[in-house]
Specification:
With about 230 residues, this protein is α/β, with parallel strands linked by helices. The chain has two domains: about 5-145, Bacterial extracellular solute-binding protein, family 7 (D-Maltodextrin-Binding Protein, domain 2), CATH 3.40.190; about 150-225, D-Maltodextrin-Binding Protein, domain 2, CATH 3.40.190. It is built from eight helices and ten strands. The chain has helices at about 40-55, 75-80, 95, 115-120, 125-130, 175-185, 195-200, 215-220, and strands at about 10-15, 30-35, 60-65, 90, 140-145, 150-155, 170, 190, 210, 225. It has a five-stranded mixed beta sheet with strand order 3-2-4-1-5, with helices on both faces. Residues about 1-10 and about 15-20 have low confidence and may be disordered.
Length: about 230
């Protein structure tokens, strides 16, 4: 139901990486952290990227990946990036909008007509400007990852029209834009960290959530929900 705009994640690179005072190794190590499971296709894409970095640099650069939220939630990872404790991270657009206001556009549904329109924009001048919009905040976007369109899913009722959301507590990321989107559709937006969402769904703290198919499946939310694709 959400359409294609809310599905993007971004890979970020620290704009300025401070050089250490200790002895230099012949291999430069870049730390990349994210919150996804190791089975997620986006994680697998980053593993492939790390392999290619090693190959193309002939061993002079290495990317060490810390998955599954080992180093913190997405907002914490962005903050670690800004102070130089990380070289790269992968985050969703929603937490990033608190740091780079222009990214709010990715939390608005139905902005793009279709997938061709989406990638034409992202691979063009507008997409590049958005990747560079965080430079003044010590953040620089490298690329966009596509994990599929986001849909609502609930514990009891199908969601086929906005009216189906009326009165339901829907988990959202900590994003003002996502909160306003769910409210505009008639639902009650409830911010909950990703790691706490399974138990929140199981215990009825929220009536539903929204996400893309890989995250829905790998998080085992189907055990307590029925996906209602839009």
């Amino acid at each position: 139901m959400r359409g294609r705009i809310g599905r993007l994640t971004l890979l970020l690179l620290l704009l300025l990486i401070s050089s250490g005072c200790g002895p230099r190794s012949s291999t430069r190590v870049l730390k990349l952290a994210h919150g996804l499971d190791v089975a997620h296709p986006v994680h697998q894409a980053m593993v492939h990227m790390a392999e290619r970095v090693g190959e193309l640099s002939r061993g002079r650069m290495r990317v060490d990946i810390y998955p599954s939220g080992l180093l913190g939630e997405e907002r914490e990872l962005i903050e670690l990036l800004q102070i130089g404790s990380l070289a790269m991270t992968k985050v969703s657009a929603s937490p990033l909008e608190s740091f780079v206001p222009e990214i709010k556009i990715f939390s608005i549904p139905y902005v793009f007509r279709d997938e061709e329109h989406l990638w034409k924009v992202l691979n063009g001048e507008i997409g590049r400007r958005l990747l560079l919009a965080g430079q003044q905040y010590f953040l620089r976007g490298m690329c966009y990852y596509d994990a599929g369109p986001r849909s609502f899913y609930t514990r009891e009722v199908p969601v086929r029209t906005p009216e189906d959301l009326v009165g339901l507590k829907i988990r959202v990321q900590k994003s003002i834009t996502s909160h306003r989107m769910v409210k505009a559709l008639g639902g009650a937006a409830t911010p909950i960290d990703w790691g706490e969402l399974y138990s929140a769904l199981q215990q009825g703290v929220v009536d539903g959530a929204e996400n893309n198919p890989p995250s829905f499946y790998l998080s085992h939310h189907y055990e307590v929900q029925v996906l209602q694709p839009g």
